[in-house]
Amino acid sequence: MLDEEMRYFLEYCRISDFSEKSIESLNTRLNEFNEFLKTTTVTSLIDISYQHLRTFIGDFKIPSVHIKKARVWSLRQFFHFLKLNGWVAENIALDLPYPKIEKTVPKYLTTDEYNRMLRHFYENAINIIGLRNLVLIMILGLLGLRLSSVISLNVDDIDLETGLIWFTDKGKKERTLIVPRVLCIVLSQYLELHDKKQGSLFLSGRNKRISQRSLQNIFRQAADRLGIKKHLHAHLFRHTAATHLNRVAGPEITQHVLGHMWRKNTERYTHLNPDQYAVYMKRHPFMSM
C-alpha cells in the first residue's frame, strides 16, 4: 500500500545523508508497517490513525523493546517526510512515546584481564599475523575505536612521526587521535612487515581487508586460551578503554577520545571506576559504624 511513498522516502534519506545502517533499519520497519496495514481496513494514508501506529508498535508480531524503539523512530521520520510533502496534514507519529529500555551495567576487561590479553598477543607476535593481532587489540583497548572504524583503517591513516591516527567514526565524522608511544613502536614493526604504502591496514590471510567475522574468531580463540569467561567483542574493548582512561584522565578527556557529542553518553562509563568507588565507600559515614 505504501510502496511508492516508501520508495520516495528512502531516496530522500539517501540524499539527506542518512547512514546505510539507518536506511536499512527504516526499510525493514516500514516494510513491517506496510505488512501490518494489510491486516487492517486501512485503504489510504488518511485512514491511518494514531491508534493504528500504537497497535503496530506494541502488538504486531510481538516485538522486543528494541524493535519497538526502532519502529517509533521509523514512523516519526516517515510521517515527518509525508507532512513535508503534503501527503498528510500532520505528523501523527510525533507523540509516540519511546519504550523504556532498562539500562544494564556495561561490562569491561579488568586491568589484569587486559594485561593477560596483551601478554598473550605479544608472545604470539612472531610474524605479520601475530603483530597484526597485537596492534588490533592495542588500538581497540587503548583508543577505544569502534569496530567499523578499525576495519576501515588504511596504511596512510597512520603517521608515526607525529604519532597521529586519522579515522572515520560513527556518522561519517573524520577524527584524529594521538597514538600512545608503545602503540607507535608496535605499529612501526608491523608496518615494516606489512610493506605497503597504501591500502588496508589490517589484511586477512587471503590478503584482503580483515572482516568482522575474522576479528570475532581472534577474540574467541584468545578468550578460550586465557580462560576469560566474558564474551569478547569490539565494544567490550571500547568499554575497557573508556573505563581505564576515565580513572586517570576524567570524563572530559574520555568524552573526547570516545568521540561522544553528549557528556551523558560518556557518563555510562564514569561510574565503572572501582578505585573511586572504593575511596567513596571508605568515606561513607555508615562505614565507620
How would you summarize what this structure contains?
With 289 residues, the chain is mainly alpha-helical. The chain has helices at 3-15, 20-37, 50-59, 65-84, 111-123, 128-143, 147-151, 181-194, 212-226, 234-249, 251-258, 263-270, 274-283, and strands at residues 158-159, 164-169, 173-178.
Protein architecture, described:
The protein is mainly α. It folds into 2 domains: 82 residues; 169 residues, Intergrase catalytic core (hpI Integrase, Chain A). Strands 1-2-3 form a 3-stranded antiparallel beta sheet. Strand 1 and strand 2 form a beta hairpin. Helix 1 runs antiparallel to helix 2, helix 10 runs antiparallel to helix 11 and helix 11 packs across helix 12. It starts with a helix and ends in a 6-residue tail after the last helix. 24% of the residues are buried. The mean pLDDT is 88.
Map the helices and strands.
Layout: H1 3-15, H2 20-37, H3 50-59, H4 65-84, H5 111-123, H6 128-143, H7 147-151, E1 158-159, E2 164-169, E3 173-178, H8 181-194, H9 212-226, H10 234-249, H11 251-258, H12 263-270, H13 274-283
